[in-house]
Amino acid sequence: MLLLSRGTFAIIILLCFAVQAGQSSAKQDLVIELSKSASRHPDSVTFTSAGGIHFAALLRNVSGHHLRVWEEWCSWGYFNLTFMVSVDGKLYKFQKSATHTWEKNIPSFRSLAPNEAYSMEVTLTPPTWEGNFEAMQSAHKPIEILAIYSSPTSTEETGADVWAGVTESKQYPLEKLR
Questions:
Q1: Spatial distance between the Cα atoms of 172 and 102, rounded to a whole number of angstroms
Q2: First CA to last CA across the chain, in angstroms?
Q3: How many Å apart are CA 36 and CA 13, to the nearest integer?
């Protein structure tokens, strides 16, 4: 197994998404931030009994104009959010499960005014998310997490004028709450 440093791995992942999206990362119109969940425990990031994490991911429009982003309930936005979690010095990727099916699926986007944020509640647990949950449960050192939001260019996106590109959050330390 090839082990890379956290910084090297994050750069490789970001470059892969940038090439996939066909966008230059020189201009950032959209940023992603992680925040404590407003709906459950507003004073903390919480760990679930299944070893997952509950928090909010915020997509913020930092441009001077309106931006559209895919809503996460449809297939155009469902897979756009991934996380890199650092546990005891090792990085693990968490992504939405590829086995998800839709009863109804139409392109749906959210329009964000300048400085407006789109909040996505995240409960990072199986079966919705895939990743190494056992590593988080047995962590001996602080856990850190960063978010990557990638929206590749497609015919539907171009027609709907939806933001396309990649943005990555800073790393956030998490405290394990029992």
A1: 32
A2: 32
A3: 25
